Amino acid sequence: GENVEQHPSTLSVQEGDSAVIKCTYSDSASNYFPWYKQELGKRPQLIIDIRSNVGEKKDQRIAVTLNKTAKHFSLHITETQPEDSAVYFCAAILAGNQFYFGTGTSLTVIP
Amino acid sequence: DAGITQSPRHKVTETGTPVTLRCHQTENHRYMYWYRQDPGHGLRLIHYSYGVKDTDKGEVSDGYSVSRSKTEDFLLTLESATSSQTSVYFCATQGSYGYTFGSGTRLTVV
To answer: How confident is the prediction along chain B (110 residues), in pLDDT tens digits per residue?
Structure first.
């Protein structure tokens, strides 16, 4: 199977600063890498994803980068706002249908 | 998301009793999954289904069984609940845009 490691486990930033969360994966056959945001007491929701044939993808203040050679991918949030406070999960999927999740990063944006 | 619902939302049960959690989807997705979420462990796959009556184990399947008699329903059964199964359980389906999760079931085994 796949093994996904996620760092850091907790992250605090000042409002307006950037936040970066990093994940590594073990299986070079993984080809899809989504990121989920989970607010307190709610379900995880997809915020951005990237496929293995793309190096970077942006959506307004969030972006994801993928380095296939090093087998790592990162979530970048710019101009952070208090509503960005949540737990973020990365995931990797092999050429199949099982998602392997990281252990999550609790992001706190300090006003 | 109205397309996937879980029931019950909360449940307290006693050690040794059987418990069944239900996941219902209206999206006609083929793949359905059960995860448990625990602090420090993220989301761990219990079982998944790739079609009616087609299921397989995930990484933490011991003590759990599943059934899928219809495309829209995926049931998770704790055969004899233990305190270590106290957790939040999420059902998910896979569509064109990755996973969609249900709202979760908070299960407490006392």
So the answer is: 559 999 999 999 999 999 999 999 999 999 999 999 998 888 999 999 999 999 999 889 999 999 999 999 999 999 999 999 999 999 999 877 678 999 999 999 99
| Closest CB from B31, B33, B42 relative to A102 | B42
Size of interface A-B (CB pairs under 8 A): 47
- Quickly list DSSP for chain B: -TTEEEE-SEEEE-TT--EEEEEEESS--S-EEEEEEETTTEEEEEEEEEETTEEEE-TT-TTEEEEEEETTEEEEEESS--GGG-EEEEEEEEETTEEEE---EEEEE-
- The alpha-carbon gap from A60 to the nearest alpha carbon of chain B, in Å, equals 18
What is the bridge-based pairing of β-strands A10-14 and A105-110?
parallel
* Spatial distance between the Cα atoms of B87 and B106, rounded to a whole number of angstroms: 6
